[in-house]
Amino acid sequence: MPDSFAYILNSRPFRDASVILELFSEDFGRICCIARPAKKRGKILKGMLEPFRYLHCQWIGRGEMQTLTSADERGRHHIPASEMMLGLYLNELLLLLTHPHVAMPELFSAYKITLHKLADPQLNRQILMRFEVYLLAALGYPLAMDKDAIQLRQAYLFNTETGLIPANAEEPSNQQHAQSKILLSGELLLALQDIQNMQESHWRELRRFLDQVFSRLAPRPINARKLLRF
Predict the structure, then answer these.
(1) What is the DSSP string of 89-150?
(2) Are 50 and 106 within one domain?
(3) What would the pLDDT profile of 36-79 be if each residue is shown by its tens digit?
(4) Do 186 and 166 lie in a common domain?
(5) For residues 90 and 135, what is the distance between their CA atoms, to the nearest angstrom?
(6) Strands 29-35 and 65-76
(7) Average pLDDT of the residues in 166-179
(8) Domain tally for the chain?
(9) Domain range for residue 63?
(10) Residues 32, 111: one domain?
(11) Are residues 87 and 39 in the same domain?
C-alpha cells in the first residue's frame, strides 16, 4: 500500500458523499484519489481534506484513479485570508503543469517552504515568484545560465522547444510571430544570479515574463491569476 506525505491541491464532490482529490505527494508526484470522508470518526476525516494541510496519506489501486485509505494531518499552514489566493494560484500551477505519477521531491519541498512563507505579506509576492522560477526549472526551463555567457545588453527569447536563446538567433517570420515572442533581458538574467538582492524593476520584469510563460505552457487559462493583483 503506497504512502507518502502530501498536500491536497483540489477536491470536488463525487457521488454518495465521496470526493475526488488531487494530491501532490512527496514520493509519487501528483495522484488522483477518490475518498469517502467521515465527519467525526475514521481514517479520513472530512475536516482534513482541505488545501494547505500537511498530510500523511495511504492509498490503494491501479490506473489513473486511486482510493485514499487514510489521511493523517501532521501540520498546517496558516495563510491569512487576504493571501489565500496566492496559495490557490500555486495549487493551480501544479495541477496544470505537472504530470501525474512523476515524483518531484525537490519541488514538493519548495512548495512546502513557499506555503510557510506566504503568511508574510511583505515578502510573499517575491516568494511566489521564486517558486515559479523553481517550477520552470523543474519542468525543464531553467532561467539559470553561466554568468560569463550572459550579455548584459542582449535580449533572450523563450520558447517551449529551446528554452532561452539569444533573441537574434530566431528571426520572426511575420509580424504576428514577432508580437507573440516572450523576451527576457540579459540584465534580469544577471540579477537572477543573486535573486535575494534583486531591484524592484527586476521583480516587475520577472512578473511580466512569468505570466507570459505560464500562459503559454498551461493547457487552459489560469483562473486564480485573474484574481491576483501584482
Answers:
(1) HHHHHHHHHSPBT---HHHHHHHHHHHHHTT-TTTHHHHHHHHHHHHHHHTT------GGG-
(2) no
(3) 887 666 788 888 899 999 999 999 998 889 999 999 999 999 99
(4) yes
(5) 10
(6) parallel
(7) 57
(8) 2
(9) 3-76
(10) no
(11) no
